[in-house]
Amino acid sequence: MKTYDVVIVGGGIIGGSIAFELTQRNLRVAVLDRQELMHEASWAAAGMLSPAPDCPAAIPLVPLGRASLAQYQKFVDAVEDASGLRTGFRTGGAVEVICHGDAGRELSTLVALHHGLGLACEPLPLDEARNMEPALGRDARAAALLPDECSVEPRALTSAVLAAAATTGAALCPGIEVTSLVLEANKCIGVKTSSGEIFYAAQVIVAAGCWSSQISEAAPYAPTLPVRGQMASLRHSGTPIRHVLRSERGYLVPRGVESPQTVVVGSTIENVGYEKCVTSGGIEKILSAANELVPELAKAEIVETWSGLRPGSPDQLPILGPVDVDGLVFATGHYRNGILLAPVTAKLIGQWIAERRTSIDWEAFSPLRFLQARGDRSVTA
Ligand SMILES: Cc1cc2nc3c(=O)[nH]c(=O)nc-3n(C[C@H](O)[C@H](O)[C@H](O)COP(=O)(O)OP(=O)(O)OC[C@H]3O[C@@H](n4cnc5c(N)ncnc54)[C@H](O)[C@@H]3O)c2cc1C
Question: How far away, in angstroms, is 86 Cα from ligand 1 center?
Fold first, then answer.
């Protein structure tokens, strides 16, 4: 019989970061994943660490994003120390470029929105923007510097996080699919796998990304939805790009500064179910946005294309915390921000599991909000 303090369903950045946090709290943890670990959204991500909201629905997330960004340096230091692996963490800010519409007005709105949310954002005259980024295209009409934003290499980070969790004692279990939660008298006592085996645990954490909703006992609390994003990676031999660059149409994330440079470009936002593929229209869209930002990229070699499924939720907010079943906790629905939110998610879940308190109010992200919305159960937790 396999028994742990905590079983985590899902070995992406969220499950891995929670495992690392919990092993440091001396808990016996197993991470179960139905395939190789970190092969889904966490592998596909661009790695921008931006707490700025990309739509009005994301505004309630800003304080959580800011808190996570503030913890990032410490988080990557701990992960790199424990794993001996690099994460590609880079500070230095991002540049937001406006190429269309009434650029002056768009810029004022952008700056005011950021300041209203306590986020640093400075208008950047175009000659200064071109000094900072000589490769910036002539279509740029206005620009702003977001000096606190950072980036990371998600594949390197997730590998390092999982290695750090393993080094500190977590059992990483690839190839184990959880088919159901084992419930007994309003308590979750473990999970059942596709081979019929039961992993018993005092706490079960569902961190299965957009597939969380496919575990039937989890679905009422975590009605996650897949949101496809297509990406490409380019080998660029022209003027190196120094910052994350974003426009209304897409973004570029440079990896390193030496030439030839790898530049990751993205992304689409598509509601096409669980179909994970790359389409000619999707790639055309992200490449044309990238070439508009930095026209030299039209000569860059396409090294790789891929797509991933973001764990969306009905209100575009993450799904975090305990529910009205003892021993069951959720950490999913991170949508476009799971790489950014990994440190704060791990910290909050760790505090809850070990201390039954959290240092940040996470009520707005409670999984119980979906039961309340449906009005189909009495809500007690
Ligand atoms: C194209 C793209 C670009 C992105 N860019 C950024 C970005 O720049 N910045 C940012 O912060 N975020 C970004 N994101 C979002 C981020 O990648 C996700 O929010 C994050 O990776 C979610 O992590 P996760 O661990 O919850 O899910 P995942 O990484 O999807 O991991 C879930 C795991 O659960 C496993 N699993 C599923 N069902 C079961 C089961 N029944 N039993 C066992 N295991 C199971 C899966 O195999 C998978 O390994 C991007 C996402 C995409 C797709």
Answer: 20
